[in-house]
UniProtKB/TrEMBL annotation:
Name of protein: Amidohydrolase-related domain-containing protein
Gene3D superfamilies xref list: Metal-dependent hydrolases (3.20.20.140)
Native source organism of the sequence: Cohnella faecalis
PANTHER family linked to this entry: CYTOSINE DEAMINASE
GO molecular function, one term: hydrolase activity, acting on carbon-nitrogen (but not peptide) bonds, in cyclic amidines
Length: 178
């Protein structure tokens, strides 16, 4: 993924202020925001000229299931109801592999990042079929994407099991849902 970006975003419009603005960034963090000065030099890093484009805060995705991303092309037919979609998805879980979950998750995260998502909450299912596979995959992905997108993991159980899905097995997540 590389290091944190440093440089200047010049001549940007802010959603909360009039005029053009220069935003100085060091190691991925905003360190200075001031009215744009024509011909400003960049002391460190590179310059991106916004040319009046609107600069917005990063977007937040509050509910995503990375382990279920991009499954629609595997469905036998379009679902006629939410219940049917849940049932068809449950049937597909037996074919999950760690590599499959990781590949689909990475595709979803790359796409989300390109569209401006900088933080997301991923719900990770723990059940007797997938066990901890989705959680373990999500933990690895979170480490790999740490410099690109902030990921909060919420582990939740389906069909309670005495072996899989108890509080201790999901303690590596940020939160536990039901």
């Amino acid at each position: 993924m590389g290091g944190k970006w440093s440089g200047l975003i010049a001549e940007a419009c802010r959603y909360d202020a009039e005029g053009l603005w220069d935003i100085e960034i060091a190691d991925g963090k905003i360190v200075n925001v001031e009215p744009s000065v024509p011909g400003r030099a960049v002391l460190a890093g590179e310059m991106l000229r916004a040319k009046g484009a609107l600069l917005l805060p990063g977007l937040v995705e509050t509910h995503i299931h990375l382990d279920k991303a991009f499954l629609s092309n595997r469905m036998p037919r379009p679902a006629g109801s939410v219940a049917e979609a849940i049932a068809m998805t449950a049937e597909l879980k037996s074919s999950y592999t760690p590599e499959d979950i990781t590949a689909r998750s990475e595709l979803a995260l790359d796409r989300a990042s390109r569209f401006g998502v900088t933080r997301l909450r991923a719900h990770v299912e723990i059940d007797p079929i997938v066990g901890l596979m989705s959680l373990e995959s999500a933990l690895d992905i979170r480490r790999c994407y740490a410099d690109k997108i902030g990921i909060q993991l919420v582990a939740f159980r389906r069909k309670a099991s005495s072996v899989v899905g108890n509080r201790s097995s999901s303690s590596r997540s940020d939160a536990i849902g039901s």
